[in-house]
Design brief:
Blueprint: E1 11-15, H1 19-31, E2 35-39, H2 42-52, E3 56-60, H3 68-77, E4 86-91, H4 95-103, E5 108-112, H5 116-131, E6 137-139, E7 142-145, E8 148-151, E9 156-159, E10 162-164, H6 168-179, E11 185-186, H7 187-195, H8 203-217, E12 224-227, E13 231-234
Parallel strand pairs: 1-2, 1-3, 3-4, 4-5
Antiparallel strand pairs: 6-7, 7-8, 8-9, 9-10, 11-13, 12-13
Bound molecules: calcium ion.
Calcium ion is lined by residues 17-18, 60, 62-63.
């Protein structure tokens, strides 16, 4: 990921076919001093992403021609554009598409209609995650988030200084989520990260792990948030 100099603007590519939403996005992003380019279709977005080298892409799912999921897949398949984080713009009813998009490598999603405030917060969070590879850690071996300390090397967790005994799988789930606060993981992504791709999985098995994990974390269990219909995320610190 390129280093962003003080005077250099952060570049955002917006892929959206509806003019009012294009304008809303452009206005609000430019107000925050981002350098914005807007295109109407995936066919325009793919070559432009390689050339413009945006720091972030806002990608509508419902597009004429190649839809947002197809565009996401193609961007993630090209080593030049694969590292660029993608935030999908979706309708609330497109839960299955959101899950697919996240599994194709999109970082996040915002549902329409969205408030500019929410959109800008998600943009900032995504940019923060790429600029700091491990946002909450001071070093890679210790994750400190809210009142939870996670010792990655020794597989030890404490909440407010009190040891919490987790199973191997619960620990791996907590580690995955807490390394990228605010990022939503689908159930499949969680199981994949914990067991490798061959592990036979049901949605239910992940839910059971989360229930156990929350219970053991006690009050701190609330930092593992359920994202209805999509999966789970670790709450970002304010
Ligand atoms: Ca659209």
């Amino acid at each position: 990921m390129r280093k962003i100099g003080r005077m250099e603007k952060i570049k955002i590519l917006v892929v959206e076919d509806e003019a009012p939403i294009q304008e809303l996005l452009q206005f609000n992003l430019e107000r925050k001093k981002y350098h914005v380019k807007v295109v109407d279709s995936g066919e325009e977005a793919i070559p432009l992403a390689a050339e413009f080298k945006p720091d972030l892409i806002l990608l509508d799912i419902m597009l004429p021609g190649a839809d947002g999921l197809e565009v996401c897949k193609r961007l993630k398949a090209d080593p030049k554009t694969a590292p660029i984080p993608i935030i999908m713009l979706t309708a609330l009813c497109e839960e299955a598409d959101i899950v697919t998009g996240l599994e194709l490598g999109a970082d996040d999603y915002v549902t329409k209609p969205f408030s500019p405030r929410v959109l800008l917060a998600r943009v900032k969070a995504a940019l923060r995650r790429i600029s700091a590879t491990k946002p909450v850690t001071s070093n890679d071996d210790l994750i400190q988030a809210h009142n939870i300390s996670i010792d990655v090397v020794r597989h030890k967790v404490d909440v407010d200084g009190k040891d919490v005994v987790l199973t191997f799988t619960e620990f791996k789930v907590l580690q995955l989520l807490s390394q990228q606060p605010g990022r939503v993981f689908t159930r499949y992504q969680i199981v994949d990260a914990v067991h490798g791709e061959d592990y036979p999985v049901t949605d239910r098995s992940v839910d059971v792990q989360i229930v156990g994990l929350r219970k053991k974390l006690g009050d701190a269990g609330k930092f593992i948030e359920t994202v209805r219909g999509i999966g789970y995320r670790f709450k970002e610190e304010e």
